[in-house]
Amino acid sequence: MQADDLESLVTITMPYGKYQGRVLADLPGAYLAWFARTGFPRGRLGELLALMHELDHNDLRGLLAPLRK
Predict the structure, then answer these.
(1) C-alpha 61: how far from its chain's center?
(2) Where are the alpha helices (DSSP H) in the chain?
(3) CA–CA dist 16, 59 (Å, integer)
């Protein structure tokens, strides 16, 4: 995990798919779990989606609240 990853979750939007344009932190848990089962995309997006899945799975979405603008 990099220092700015949590901030990236509340600023970067999903570039494609059903939830295109939605901030990564707002993606539904079921969608993140689907990625976990089928495989995360390569690169930075995949790393951030995996991190968001961990936060969601462990009920830690509240950590992102102070970072929202």
Answers:
(1) 10
(2) 5-9, 29-38, 43-57
(3) 25
